[in-house]
Every structure is written in C-alpha cells, then in structure tokens.
Amino acid sequence: MRISKEKIKIYMANNCMTYDDLAKKSRVSRFTIQKMFANKVDTRPVTIGKIAKALNVKVEELIEYEAATSNQ
Fold first, then answer.
1. pLDDT at position 43, please?
2. pLDDT of the residue at 66
3. pTM, whole model, 2 decimals?
4. Can you tell me whether residue 25 is helix, strand or coil?
5. Closest alpha carbon to 7 in 40, 54, 55, 53
6. What are the residues whose beta carbons fall under 8 Å from the beta carbon of 22, sequence distance 6 or more?
7. Distance set, CA 3 to CA 59, 61, 72 (Å)
8. How many Cβ atoms from other residues are within 10 Å of residue 49's Cβ?
C-alpha cells in the first residue's frame, strides 16, 4: 500500500505533532516512520492503521490510490 506523505504531514500539522510525537502516539518506531517517508520500506497495513489511529483519521484518508489502467 502506498501512503500519501503529504496527507500525513497535513494531519500532523492539524494535530501540532512532530515525527517524534507521531512515533510515540502510534507506537511505531521513529526509524520506521523515517524509512516510510523515504520510500525505503513497503508500509504494512498494521503500521498504516496505527498511524491513522494516532492521527484520528480513517485509513482510507492516508492511502494514495493509483488510477487503474486498462488495455482496451
């Protein structure tokens, strides 16, 4: 799953949160959050769920949907 880093940053700003705050509240390591934002790790659904819960938003609001392509 691809997450929208921009949306997460907006929700963090709305909640006046730093990356450290997000790590503490979501119980996701700061290291994992850094790797997630650097596109160095494929974010697991459980991690996205923890971050969404910490930001008090639905998971769907953090997911980046790619347009489906068809070969018709």
1. 86
2. 67
3. 0.82
4. helix
5. 55
6. 8, 12, 28, 33, 51, 54, 55
7. 9, 9, 29
8. 13
Would you mind telling me the total number of residues written for the chain in this entry? 72
Q: What CA–CA distance (Å, rounded) separates 35 from 29?
A: 10
Question: What are 8-64's pLDDT values in tens digits?
Answer: 999 999 999 999 999 999 999 999 999 988 887 788 999 999 999 999 999 999 988
Q: Which amino acid is at 66?
A: E
Q: pLDDT at position 40, please?
A: 76
- Which secondary-structure segment (H or E) carries 34? helix 30-37
Tokens of 41: 């790790």
Candidate CATH numbers 3.40.50.970, 1.10.260.40, 2.30.30.240, 3.30.70.100; the one for domain 5-61: 1.10.260.40
